[in-house]
Write a structure and sequence with these properties.
Blueprint lengths: L1 H26 L1 H8 L2 H22 L2 H10 L6 H25 L1 H7 L7 H16 L1 H9 L3 H25 L4 H18 L1 H7 L6 H11 L2 H13 L1 H8 L2 H11 L3 H21 L5 H31 L2 E2 L2 E2 L12 H17 L1 H5 L6 H23 L1 H26 L6 H20 L7 H20 L5 H17 L1
Antiparallel strand pairs: 1-2
């Protein structure tokens, strides 16, 4: 089992390095935007990207997930047909959708409340969605072929290109929100060119109707499920805008993005997790393996939750070239960061629990699970934002992910029962609560040497006590030591 866990860790690390590097570079745009865009301008960007998140689901209509499922166990046609059938479908529909958005941009801008003067941003958004959809199947193909290094390299190049163009347009050419969207569009177009060879080598005009019916049957439930999932991630921005103002949305968006490290861990795990459980689903110890993966994943997530929450005050005060990492105008929103981080813990739980639904082809339950989360999100946003402002929006996000993780666990256990190691997970959760309680009782001065030392000590306390209360399997720890020693001897 340890060998399989290490293999999952290796692939997750490769995807993760690209994801961490890429997302970190992309995250650097947050302090960049906070220093060059007014909160109201950044609020417009955040609002429009919230709608883009919804449209990504509609543009893709589950074809990426369906392609990966049927590529792993082919039931129709050859490998080229399995690639080309979903790609041709996405190409045709994305062209149609983007043309409609392009020619109705002024109406759309007025409808979503950003003003008709921002119609060009709507047009850019339409073609961003077009290119983002075209690269989905080629990227999924690289994952299923275990070409993690190539996948990683292309993703990093895309983000570097995006950052460079942001600097060029905003700093060099004096653009504002328009520069953000134009940079994203050109970077995605460049990514499609880099993936063109991968696309051409696997492309055929042979379109399998039988495969297409199965792809749609598997993938279409991802549309309502995906929209509900996107609602939980971004619906709070439009609601926050309606109940407050653009500046409040800008403050919320900047601090929400400070949870990037937790988002990276979930993202890099998900990239490696789906190919991994598809590969090992028929192993004799598959269910025990999946349970052990969840335990160690939760331990990592909780450690990140503690670390980032304790050090975020110090992070935002770092100065580079005379500018704060995050401008002081945005510091009043730092209180939402631990809540957003905890929300990502439950997001990661959802990703783990989806294994049963995926293997048993029960995707029809996805709209119900994510729909319940979305309803909770919207309801709690309207309830708590008038009372607590951005804190209310953060608690709404947490509530929705708790509901979604619980719903996915119940649904998955009914078709593919896994005995998760709940006693160990509860020990880790209790230890996390105790560390937070201790940190609150011993307040420290941000960015001070003594404060940093105390915060580091709390992180160490979590690690030490996690071993003392046997939150990890001693046999796994011994095997891990032996594997590392063996690796060092080979080196």
């Amino acid at each position: 089992m340890l060998e399989k866990l290490l293999r999952l860790g290796k692939e997750a690390a490769i995807y993760g390095l690209s994801s961490i590097l890429g997302r970190f570079l992309n995250f650097l745009l947050v302090p960049f935007y906070t220093n060059y865009l007014l909160p109201s301008e950044y609020g417009v960007v955040a609002t429009l990207y919230a709608y883009i998140a919804f449209m990504v689901i509609v543009y893709g209509y589950g074809m990426e997930a369906a392609y990966m499922r049927f590529f792993s166990t082919p039931e129709h046609g050859d490998a080229k047909q399995n690639f080309s059938t979903p790609f041709i479908s996405l190409l045709g529909t994305s062209v149609l959708f983007s043309l409609v958005i392009h020619f109705s941009a002024r109406s759309v801008a007025g409808w979503i409340g950003i003003g008709e003067e921002h119609a060009d941003l709507i047009r850019y958004a339409g073609w961003i969605l077009f290119f983002d959809t075209l690269v989905a199947i080629p990227y999924a193909s690289l994952r299923m072929d275990h070409k993690a290094m190539k996948f990683a390299g292309l993703r990093v190049v895309n983000i570097l290109c995006n950052i460079a163009l942001n600097i060029l347009f905003i700093v060099g050419m004096g653009m504002k929100a328009e520069g953000v969207f134009l940079a994203n569009l050109l970077a995605l177009a460049f990514s499609f060119l880099l993936l063109f060879r991968t696309t051409v080598t696997q492309f055929t005009m042979s379109f399998s109707r039988g495969l297409y019916r199965d792809l749609l049957k598997f993938g279409l439930p991802y549309v309502p499920a995906g929209i509900a999932g996107a609602a939980m991630q971004v619906i709070d921005r439009p609601i926050l805008k309606a109940l407050t103002d653009d500046a409040t949305v800008g403050v919320y968006q900047a601090n929400y993005r400070l949870g990037v490290l937790m988002m990276l861990v979930v993202g890099m795990f998900d990239y490696a997790w789906r190919p991994f459980f598809l590969q090992h689903a028929k192993d004799d110890d598959a269910k025990d393996l999946f349970a052990r993966v969840f335990t160690y994943f939760v331990a990592l997530m909780l450690f990140i939750l503690i670390s980032v929450s304790l050090f975020v005050d110090d992070l935002v005060r770092i100065q580079v070239f005379g500018k704060y990492f995050i401008h002081p105008d945005y510091w009043k929103g730092l209180t939402i960061v631990p809540i957003i981080l905890l929300s990502y813990v439950f997001t990661g739980a959802y990703v783990n629990f989806v294994v049963g639904i995926y293997l048993e082809k029960k995707t029809k339950v996805l709209p119900y699970v994510t729909g319940a989360g979305a309803i909770v999100n919207v309801a709690v946003n309207f309830w708590l934002i008038p009372l607590y402002g951005i804190m209310g929006a953060a608690f709404a996000t947490l509530a929705s992910y708790v509901v979604m993780a619980a719903g996915m666990y119940i649904a998955s256990q009914q078709v593919y029962r896994i005995k998760y190691e709940w006693s160990r997970i509860l020990k880790l959760a209790a230890l996390t609560a105790l560390v937070f309680a201790g940190a609150l009782l011993v307040p420290v001065e941000p960015a001070s040497v003594s404060g940093l030392a105390i915060k580091a000590a709390w992180c160490l306390v979590f690690i030490v006590f996690a071993f003392l209360v046997r939150a990890f399997d001693p046999a796994d720890i011994i095997s891990m030591k032996q594997a590392i020693a063996k690796l060092l001897r080979r080196s």
